[in-house]
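Troubleshooting log. The previous structure file for this entry was overwritten by mistake, so regenerating from the original sequence record. Sequence copied from the archived sheet and checked twice against the printout by T.R.
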Amino acid sequence: MILLFTVLLVITSSLLILLVLLHKGRGGGLSDMFGGGVSSGLGGSSVAERNLDRLTVGIGVIWFACIVALGLLMAYRP
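Regenerated output below.
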């Protein structure tokens, strides 16, 4: 059971990193340094951004549940 949650944690962690990097930069941070602020009107549609937000939050919830489940399994294993 611990192995299952560990594998799921690795997969969700990788997906979460990928999804966060896919988000459009919104401020004057590192995204402007690499040309993210230049294409202000050329980005994706708002529907795609909303779907990406929902997917990111869903994967984040699964990731958090894996962390809690692994913590409980490690604490109460015989």
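The chain has one domain: 1-21+45-78. Archived copy saved in two places this time.
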